[in-house]
Every structure is written in structure tokens, then in C-alpha cells.
Amino acid sequence: MKKMMRWLGAILVMISGLAAVVPAQAANTDTSNNIGFSVAAQTPKNQIDKQATFFDLKMTAGQTQTLQTRIYNTTNRDIRVAMGIHTAYTNSGGAIEYVTPAKTYNQDTVDDNGISIWWLIGLGALGMLILVLLILWLVLFLKKRRQSQD
Fold this sequence. Notes:
By secondary structure, this protein is α+β, with helices and mostly antiparallel strands. 34% of the residues lie in helices and 12% in strands. The chain is built from 2 helices and 4 strands. The protein has helices at 2-19, 117-149, and strands at residues 37-42, 68-73, 88-90, 96-98.
């Protein structure tokens, strides 16, 4: 029985060690702006977070407002820019990714295109709990089986 407990303990330690490994990715050190321009929001007075670099406005239902932005051409040539409302984010490689724009804005359909680290931690913890319970059940089952054979 002690030998079996040692094996189960060793397996549990190995699995725990594997679960602790977190993949990492090096930061993108390329600081060049490959798109040729940048855009800055000209935040109005009803901006909720004055430090934010995006529009986060306090508005009432049905209210309309004209938004202004400033476009900076970072190239030495003329550019043509098409305007539109998009949800964008920076992917793990540092490139800008755009979500296909909706015809109308609806808060319920906005996707942040990412998984919360807390969700991943919770999922990992749940997996570890299930694994521990499974090993505990196995130990008790084998112990009962051994007792019934004696």
C-alpha cells in the first residue's frame, strides 16, 4: 500500500509540475509603424475617463454626437484614409486586428476578442481539483478493494 501511495504521490507531483508551466511569448520589439498613419481621439467634455486614448462617452439613449479625431501621416507620401467604426485590439504579435464592423453598435454584441487570464486560472484550478478528487477516489477504491481481499 505504501508503494502505491508513493507512486500516486509521484504522479500527482509530475502532473502538478506540468500544470504550472505557462507558455510565454517575447514582446514584439519592432517599433516601426507599418500602417503609415496613427489616429488620436479628440476627446469631448463628456469623456468618462479623461486619460483614455479612445472614446468612452457618457451619453443618454438616443443622443447623437459628432466625434473628432486627428490623423497623423507617418510616411513621406500622401495617403488616403477611409473612416469607419471598428472594434480593434492588438494581437499577441503586436499587430492591430480589426473585428468585422457591425452595421449598428450594440453593447450586447461587442466582443473583446480575448480570454481573461482569470478565466484561464479558474479553468486550471477546476482541472486540478477534478484531478485531485479522481486520485483520492482511486486511492480509496484501491484501499477498499485491498481490504476486501484480506
